[in-house]
Design brief:
Strand order of the largest sheet: 1-2
Oligomer: single chain
Largest sheet: 2 strands, antiparallel
Strand content: 5-15%
Helix content: 55-70%
Number of domains: 2
Structural class: mainly alpha
Shape: elongated
């Protein structure tokens, strides 16, 4: 799936949410509620694909240590979850990072990256 198709799909899901609301508005057992729930699950997968697509490509000429350090940096610097109001077409919102949940892991990773010179 190309990035442009993914963005179009996300935009279309934003429009559906703005028009029809949340699955719970209909009830999760209702066909409309179930369909919306499934669509919003797809939305979450599309957003995750977008985050993965932003990660740096593996470059085999780089050392394993450097590639691991870059991967660790991306894991720290890439939001795990972004909360926004899709009904208003909000692109940006509150970003939750690894450090939001496990600050000790994030701090240790940052220390290792500093030690590696990154």
């Amino acid at each position: 799936m190309t990035n442009s198709v993914r963005k179009d799909a996300v935009g279309a899901i934003h429009a559906v949410h703005a028009a029809f609301g949340a699955p719970g508005d209909y009830g999760y057992e209702d066909p409309k509620g179930k369909a919306l729930s499934d669509l919003y699950k797809l939305y979450n997968k599309l957003i995750a694909m977008g985050l993965i697509a932003q990660l740096p490509e593996d470059e085999p000429e780089k050392s394993l240590e450097l590639r691991l350090a870059e991967c660790l940096a991306a894991a720290i610097d890439t939001p795990l979850l972004r909360l926004n109001d899709i009904s208003r077409g909000e692109e940006d919102g509150i970003a939750l990072y690894l450090g939001s949940f496990k600050p000790e892991i994030s701090e240790r990773a940052a220390g290792l990256l500093e030690e590696a010179g990154l």
